[in-house]
Amino acid sequence: MTDGLGGHASAERLILLLVGAVGAGKGTQASLLSRELGLVHLASGNLFRAALAAGTPLGEAAREYMEAGALVPDEVTIAMFMEELARPAADAGAILDGFPRTVGQAKALDDTLASAGERIRRVLYIEVPTDVLVRRVAGRWICPQCGTTYHEDTDPPDIPGRCDRDGTALRQRDDDRPEVVRARLDKQVPPMLAVVEHYERAGIVDRLDGTQSIEAVTNVILASMGARAAR
Ligand code: ADP
Ligand code: ADP
Description:
Layout: E1 14-19, H1 26-37, E2 40-43, H2 44-54, H3 57-67, H4 74-85, E3 93-97, H5 103-115, E4 122-127, H6 130-138, E5 140-142, E6 149-151, H7 178-200, E7 205-209, H8 214-224
Parallel strand pairs: 1-3, 1-4, 2-3, 4-7
Antiparallel strand pairs: 5-6
Helix pairs in contact: 1-8, 2-3, 6-7
The structure holds adenosine-5'-diphosphate (2 copies).
The site of one adenosine-5'-diphosphate has 17 residues, from helix 2 and helix 3.
């Protein structure tokens, strides 16, 4: 499935979209792929939470929407991503996670990237059935410091309750309870499928079976991009 991403397109940054419902493994794969490929991981929810905590103008602009669990307006969200993409950390490229969430956002992102001579190169769509998602999310633990994600059964930290990277006490998200996850899925899935369809029209979607092990999913992604063999 190589598509010529290596070689001739080297001047163009590798901008990837990671798409999947809550619990599909986006955060997990993004952190592995960003290390493997030297890309920056830009997760909308994390960026907004950091801006809110730091009290930046962006955080203030996003506050009322986040507190209501509503989408932050597109202009604010796109401006935030373009600002992140302009940083040196994104020189080699980026993995976008949690954005775009609607076809409107996807079209606006495509246009903004095009005016900068760039484009989304691949869309990695991680498919996982609802019941598996709900079970997974219930066992998810996250490092509030560096964002690394663990699972109490499938991907536990070396020392229980502590991040392998920085030793910070891990936390569970309040909204990762089963009934809340089902409600989040009901709301998230239809617009997410519309985003996948939008990029399918451009022929750049890789559908991935997200019920495989974490390592197997990473390897399929790397192979599908024609990257050097996974280690
Ligand atoms: P959730 O899965 O509950 O939406 P996230 O951590 O992905 O959690 O996002 C947290 C909040 O950040 C959202 O409730 C929303 O206010 C904002 N947000 C995240 N992604 C987007 C986006 N693509 N567009 C607009 N707002 C977003
Ligand atoms: P997302 O960012 O898509 O919401 P996460 O990467 O946070 O998903 O993964 C949700 C939970 O499922 C985490 O606890 C993670 O450790 C676990 N997980 C991720 N991928 C897999 C997989 N392929 N098999 C089993 N568990 C997984």
